[in-house]
Amino acid sequence: xxxxxxxxxxxxxxNSITIFAQQLPPDPLAYNPQPFDVLHYDxxxxxxxxxxxxxxxxxxxxxxxxxENPNDKVxxxxxxxxxxxxxxxxxxxxxxxAQGKQEESTFHYSVPAPINKLQGDTAVVIMxxxxxxxxxxxxxxxxxxxxxxxxxxxxxxxxxxxxxSTTRHWMPCFDHPSDKATFKGTIIARKGMTxxxxxxxxxxxxxxxxxxxxxxxxxxxxYLLTFSxxxxxxxxxxxxNLPPMVVYARARDTAATRISFxxxxxxxxxxxxxxxxxxxxxxxxxxxQKGAMEHQTMVSYNTSLAQSKDTVxxxxxxxxxxxxxxxxVSPLDFRHAWLNESFATFCExxxxxxxxxxxxxxxxxxxxxxxxxxxxxxxDEKALPLYDFSRTAPSSNYPETIYQKGAVVLGxxxxxxxxxxxxxxxxxxxxxxxxxxxxxxxxxxxFEKETNIDLDTFFKEWVLQAxxxxxxxxxxxxxxxxxxLRVEQVQPESYGTYSEIPVELGFVRPDNQPTVxxxxxxxxxxxxxxxxxxxxxxxxxxxxxxxxxxxxxxTQSITDITSVSDLNAxxxxxxxxxxxxxxYISVVTQLPYRSISIIDNNGNTITFSQERxxxxxxxxxxNTWISGIYFVRVxxxxxxxxxxxxxVKE
Length: 650
Ligand SMILES: [Zn+2]
Known about the structure:
Blueprint: H1 2-20, E1 36-46, E2 55-66, E3 74-77, E4 82-89, E5 92-94, E6 97-99, E7 108-112, E8 122-132, E9 144-148, E10 151-155, E11 181-190, E12 194-197, E13 200-205, E14 209-220, E15 227-230, E16 232-237, E17 245-250, H2 254-260, H3 264-275, E18 283-288, E19 299-302, H4 303-307, H5 314-322, E20 329-331, H6 338-356, H7 358-381, H8 401-417, H9 419-432, E21 436-438, H10 440-451, H11 456-464, E22 470-479, E23 482-489, E24 501-508, E25 516-522, E26 526-531, E27 540-543, E28 554-561, E29 574-577, E30 584-589, E31 595-600, E32 605-606, E33 610-612, E34 617-621, E35 628-635, E36 639-647
Parallel strand pairs: 1-11, 17-18, 18-19, 20-21, 22-28
Antiparallel strand pairs: 1-2, 2-8, 3-7, 4-5, 4-8, 6-7, 9-10, 10-15, 11-14, 12-15, 13-14, 16-17, 22-23, 23-26, 24-25, 24-27, 28-36, 29-30, 30-34, 31-32, 31-35, 33-34, 35-36
The protein binds zinc ion.
């Protein structure tokens, strides 16, 4: 009896284990642990017929380890637009079964695990495959394999495809960022053609063909693998103590490319100083028609950017930064894509700082991103959070929100925890998760541990929540060198109330006297500050100016007083349209006003032409203004109101 009951118990246990360890399909927006771990991809591809047809055939040997008991489990791989011709599991022919519908984000093939394997055992799954490589949705979009400008090349992520990672368009693989593996690609091309890819290269030649053997002994997420086939020339850049740097460009582009990449060694050195040693064996870029994309050690880089001879090359800096952020430390799944893009975009500002200093470089770059986010992206994409954002139109897999908003949020985090703490925490994060995966929580935890600062609210308001603060400034009182300033948060309810918005204000003085800056921290929905040491002759207040920080908020209006302490006009008496300005702006005032003046972002009053449309409306011509932020200052009998206006020129 006893034995029998133990036997029953055993069966129950086994059943419950089976239910508990049910194998969930890989989901680009979730992490579903699998019973296997991919260790290495060894792909051989024939690209001799690929130009321009994108036809190929190949074989991919996938080395895996069963990290759970593989009994009743399957190996999962993805392949899109290509045909599986045969599958071997440990040299035995087997079958791959399509699971789900092609249009589902979790669509995949499954291969049964061999019997008699144990947890910890390894296996080799071999896929022989052929067909025409395609791009994402087969619609000339971004990810997958494209042909253009005599180049066949792969970009590792899609903007629209619900599966996000698009290496499956040229190679069978477990196409999920959580499973990183080493790589070897042997690619055959016709003589005269070059194949660029990840890792280090050795070549073999026959009379008609070249074999390019690319070996990368560093773990790599599949979306960071690539190849690009073109009649490339190889440009090399070297500097002591830096990894080899190589750019693949067409003969016609080599001169311009050399100029565009002139500062590449300095870029690598600068990021190495900030983030620690470059994590891989080479720095590489290959020029392609679309891009840029941060493939590990071989960035696909838009040809037209290289042709522009722009030596600042902030896109090259963005992609280089990804080698640390995204490549060396990869997101566990694509909900955390902001960990890649926000840091890479922040690094554009960091690169600006290296070149032009903190104020002219970093702060100016951050201001540009704030303006772009508020005036264009927030309108186009609507309010999105940085983590786990919506992907449906007008958003996508890579909405610009996670770039521009993310970069500014990181700038604000730098300000909050202090410069030394910020970089110390980043280096700790990069070290702790090097060659592995990270999540938003991992980043937050490292920052909290390294800085001893509670970041719960900061992450909740700026990373997890959609929207930004909108601020209305009203000067209530001016007395000597003191100003009483009311600041209201007037953003839509759904954005919530922000509990820490550093706001640096510029008090602009007449006759080119230097602007005086003062910083306040807005912590509640409606708050009044007494600001001392204000020049009594200031003519206007410009927010988000100064020498210390930039914050992500929109200024709704600034109402100020000229001499006496009671207001007459309020912000409701003036309206300005359109925003952004479109060749002109209309100013409609409901009260008689004394004058209108325009102040640029540096506090200078500019001359402008205006036309009176009727008693209440004037039209200001903005055609000759350069893009940027301006302030329309309407002076009434007893006070004045300043409105920010954006001028965008395409
Ligand atoms: Zn990026």
